[in-house]
Amino acid sequence: xGDGLLLDVRGLTVQYETESGPLVAVEQVDLQLxxxxxxxxxxxxxxxxxxLLFAIARLLVPPAxxxxxxxxxxxxxxxxxxxKELRQVRWRDFSVVMQSAMNALNPVMTVGAQLKDVCxxxxxxxxxxxxxxxxxxxxxxxVDPRHLDSYPHQLSGGMRQRAMIAMALLFTPQLVIxxxxxxxxxxxxxxxxxxxxRELQKRLGFAVLFVTHDMSLLRHFADRVAVMYxxxxxxxxxxxxxxxxxxxxxxxxxxxxxxxxxxxxxHLVGLPGAPPDxxxxxxxxxxxxxxxxxxxxxxxVEPPLYEVGxxxxxxxxxxxxxxxxxxxxxxx
Amino acid sequence: xxxxxxxxxxxxVTLWAAVTINxxxxxxxxxxxxxxxxxxxxxxxxxxxxxxxxxxxxxxVAHQSFISSYFGYLANTFTGHLGIxxxxxxxxxxxxxxQALPWTLGLVGTTTVLAFLLGTLIGLIxxxxxxxxxxxxxxxxxxxxSAFPYFWIGLVAILVFGVILKWLxxxxxxxxxxxxxxxxxxxxxxLVHSILPAATILITAIGGxxxxxxxxxxxxxxxDYVRMARAKGLRPWTIMWTYAGRNAILPNLVGFxxxxxxxxxxxxxxxxxxxxxxxxxxxxxxxxxxxYALMQALFLLITFAVLVAILVADVLTAILDPRVRxx
Lengths: 332, 327
Fold this sequence. Notes:
The complex is a heterodimer.
Chain A: E1 5-18, E2 21-34, E3 38-42, H1 49-56, E4 64-73, E5 76-77, H2 83-89, E6 94-97, H3 101-104, H4 111-122, H5 127-140, H6 157-168, E7 175-179, H7 187-204, E8 207-212, H8 215-218, E9 224-229, E10 232-238, H9 239-244, H10 249-256, E11 306-308, E12 311-313, H11 317-320
Parallel strand pairs in A: 3-8, 3-9, 6-7, 7-8
Antiparallel strand pairs in A: 1-2, 1-4, 4-5, 9-10, 10-12, 11-12
Chain B: H1 2-27, H2 33-40, H3 47-57, H4 66-78, H5 93-128, H6 133-147, H7 150-164, H8 184-221, H9 224-231, H10 236-248, H11 250-261, H12 268-273, H13 279-288, H14 292-320, H15 322-326
Helix pairs in contact in B: 1-14, 2-3, 5-6, 5-8, 5-14, 6-8, 7-8, 8-10, 9-10, 11-14, 13-14
């Protein structure tokens, strides 16, 4: 702490107990988030990014469980906290915006009632104060406060998502965790929501952990990007680095699969193959069966995270280029 | 409001249809109550008396056209003139039914509501603590119990508690030595008599509610809004009731209303097994005695009760589920 470090995830491993044995969905993940920072986490479906997010927020339900690692948030290890202690921290200090606002809002309660119950849980605000604060946060996300009396099904998808974000900002927490908040929206609504999130973030100063499978969303909004593959973080770089000169072959593959609206016309390339079965992950580097730059050692040696000019990458390419072998897998 | 009015309109139309069908069906059955009465007195009735009876029952085909008897029937039905019962001759049907109704409402009504409330509560907690003690013990037990026919359970209960242990009376709603009235002694006696039939209905009916509620609960608990409620740091109690429970109970409301509607028809077999003086027992008697007027009145009552129950369920669902109100 002290250096503005808000969230420090170390060696976080999440397992799903399945009938065919434990499935490691998130393996030894290290992530650091500074105050007010926007960190994007990107990866294919099933790479464990949502599981990672829920593990950090301590929202996993059986059969998923954190098997090792720590999540230090503002000096306290969240993994160690009992459910009761967690409740004190929840929403006041960090809030969560879920993937589909359609299902993340209780269909039988008005938006106002869903803002109210959380206010009553975490504060001693009077009814009037709650009503005022609720109207205030809705205005923050450009939703008419009269929708406090609306039920979720009466709102459009974009409005529901905004209402969710409004809810997340009730106590102006230091961290807002977002799980693909824009996937259910069309491109135009997506962009306007992203602009708004970024603007609010700058104004209110909260940090954002933003999970998405759509890499292009992060280009103009994230400070840093973490790329996940098969349960592991394979690259953590500044946004400029990831989009300009991605270090990991997988990041390059991801980037090549997205079109650029403004840039030169390029041929889009898909990544061949499919993500590995996490019950039987490939030996060595998990990406080697799909990697265009695979080397002889890749199937045998599991690469650590190498530090390359302040960025982190899990690829043996950087072993030979003289990158410091990552005995310590940290950037600070 | 428009929702309620529309439902009410639908209710009226269905009721009219039911009343009309109720008029037609007995007239398709051969025989008539006057002849049945005649049979009862083994022919020792002279023709004038028979004619008088026919007029009394309003069945003399000779002096009324089908149509006019239909309108006469409609008018009488809505003014509560349901004819004279053959079984309880010369009591009017309405009086006989009103005597049986409280017994059934008291026994079957209370147990149905109780079964729903208890079953829903157990299912709610079982689903909430999935894999807990409650959840691993009760559902399998009740699956087995629900598979037994309830009259069989009733017979076993009578055998064990009435015949062998002699703890509880064998049947009937009260002891023959009682004076009927609002005395402590009588009420206590009625309660003692109701234990076996009530328990029989309760254990056979509750299983379904436990199982469906538990399954609804498990489904709802996987919803994002429940995870969201946890993320909000709400108390588990609040999450269980207002987030999970309130959504999980919605699919069960209609089923509950239907079962309420069938309270009036009584658990016929239970009332029969326990010789209970309720509507179900009366229905059986009316069929055995060719008692058209009574049968008609009872069918009408059952239909009416089911329709009212559906209406109540619709309104209740609309209150609990905002999505229903507008569609």
